Amino acid sequence: MGELKAIWLKRAKQGPMDAVSEASLRAGRGLVGNANQGGKRQVTLINEAVWADVTARLGVDLDPSRRRANLLVSGDIDLANSRHKVLRIGPVRVRIYGETRPCEQMEAAAPGLQEMLRDDWGGGAFGEVLDDGQIALGDVVAWEAD
Predict the structure, then answer these.
(1) What is the pTM (predicted TM-score) of this model?
(2) Cβ within 8 Å of residue 143, ≥6 positions away
């Protein structure tokens, strides 16, 4: 199990990431107020420990919001190879569809970051929202049984 540590909404493509303490999700759409809606990439997630490890190995101190993901999770939530698994975040379920590949914005944040995030799902995962609901910082995050 883990915990929801941060929530960010992206106002527009390549726009700023706004930290919020809670958010509404809509099944089949994503985070209300987020630029990305619909498709399989409705929400993006990163793991706090993986981010800390990557930035430490690079010797940089970067806020995890620089990854530009929507959700930061902590604890025993290994996103690597999680394709098709279902993750429960508070009352909402998200089906993981794939690995979030790091883009050139990561290189702009810190030289070498894009390459470091390419290893073993270091850039996190993306998925589809399965339920309408409200999530908030501190919510329990856990994998659903297969």
Answers:
(1) 0.92
(2) 77, 82, 85, 86, 87, 88
Q: How many domains does the chain have?
A: 1
CATH number, domain of 93, equals: 2.40.33.20
Neighbours of 48 (CB within 10 A): 17
Range of the structural domain that residue 10 is part of: 2-143
Decide if 132 contacts 27 (C-beta within 8 A): yes
pLDDT tens digits, one per residue of 44-99? 999 999 999 989 988 888 888 888 899 999 999 999 999 999 999 999 999 999 99
In which residue are the tokens 């993901």 written? 69
Pairing of strands 133-136, 125-129: unpaired
pLDDT, tens digit, 9 for 90 and up, residues 89-132 = 999 999 999 998 877 777 778 777 778 788 888 888 999 999 99
Token representation of residue 5: 């540590």
